[in-house]
Amino acid sequence: MDRYFVSNLPIPPMSASSSIPLRWRWVISCLILCHFAAVGLTYVTNWRRSLIQDNILVWLQPYLIGGCWYQEMLPIEWVSSENKSFPTKVSIQTKQNPNEWLPVLESRSERHASSGMVPAKSRRLLRAMMELSDNEETEGILRIFNSIVVHVESTGPKESPVFVDRIRLEQLGEKKDENGEPQSDTREFTIVEASVARFENGEIGLIPKIESHRTVRARNAGRGNP
Amino acid sequence: MSSKWRESLLEWNRFWFTARAPIQISIVRIAIGILTGIVFWQYLMSGADWYGFSGWFDPEAGRYLIGDGVEGTGSLFRWSPLYRIPSLSPWVAIFGLLASLAMMLGLGARLSPLMAWVALGMFHHRAPVLTLLFEPLLLAVLVYLIVEPGRLVWTIKPGISSGEDRVSANLSVQLIRCHLWIWIAFSLASMLALPEWWNGEAGWLLIEDRRGWLRLPEGWQSVGQFMTHWVVAVQTALLASMLGSSCLWMGRWLLYLFALSILLFLGDWMYASTLLAMSLAVWPIDLFFSKVKK
User: In total, how many domains does chain A have?
Assistant: First the structure.
């Protein structure tokens, strides 16, 4: 193994022979091969997947998921695809400021670091929402909206409670053409927007703007109605 | 059995089952202990804000995104108690912080990386979609450290033995080495699957995103393109150097360049540090080894 080390400095030498019995070496070798095959398969399926891979993964779930080897939507690549790399943000409209959209999560914002939030986590959350939007999983986005609304309302100042009226996920297209003008297909646009409905029992619900027939009920924010 | 087949088996045997002094894995354990300590400190500070009952990503949203109750999603195997008891988050972070401290000091033998893995696994299972780049790597290395965590290193002084050679120490080092190689290989493969990494746009998009340390004025797209190709080239060369024994020395510098690229483009110093810590299994710290006599 010395050949793997490049230093001229003395390195602890390794014994030539192994103290592990041959039978055990075979067992460990098989385990190592199976382990790296499973890990490799997991990484491949985050990139491209087939039906056979899916079936194997489902069969290996106790080991892969239970052992934290399985990474759904693994962010192994730096840039997933162009549209997901555009800056995104979640903004809210409150009862207090009905005409103003206040950003609460921004993929480009640097203010999170100073306010104690982990900026990378907020980027991951925004990116997860973009992935859900790509898969037309509006309900998933609304669930996340619910938790954001509850979080914003529960962490606001006690003396003047914040009541969220509307919430939306936007993508900001800042790709410019040669004249410095935004390209027509990359302008800022709303991906999902929802209104917050408040029920008499104090619970809140979210009504998506596009599909107004679907209402996702949320937990009680603990504030009652405004 | 043909001689080539036999040679391959012997090489395999030599690669995995040769005894090794536990000093190298001990240094990896210390480095990983420091990093997991930082991660748990961050979870202690902001974990409740994220995973609490009224956090940015509450248990209800978390359950929905793991496909709770849906067949085939494997949600059954998400064993984090943070879904049921979100208020446990700071205590899990403290538990992990203590385990990291024990790892740094070389206390608790295999128990300390196991405890750190359990704590980090709880956060991971609570919100797999929020997993950051370095977290799967840390989780993997913690498992490999359970195989052999090495010995207490802080007390080792020049001239004092670092302990007997062990096969488990070698197994642990080689597992980390192989995992690092696979990770970089898939990182590169997933990049090359996208046209942005071929036409050079990816670098500029990342610079525009202002995530990393690199800031370039408008109109400097060509520099961004050059740097995109640079990142791909560095990763390719790094993988090749890790395979060939004769050019392994080059790999160390390529890894530093790769870590620098991560800082410039992503600004993710935890990811860069985790890669550097794992690389200690491939390229040991010479200075330290020069002082420790077997």
Answer: 2
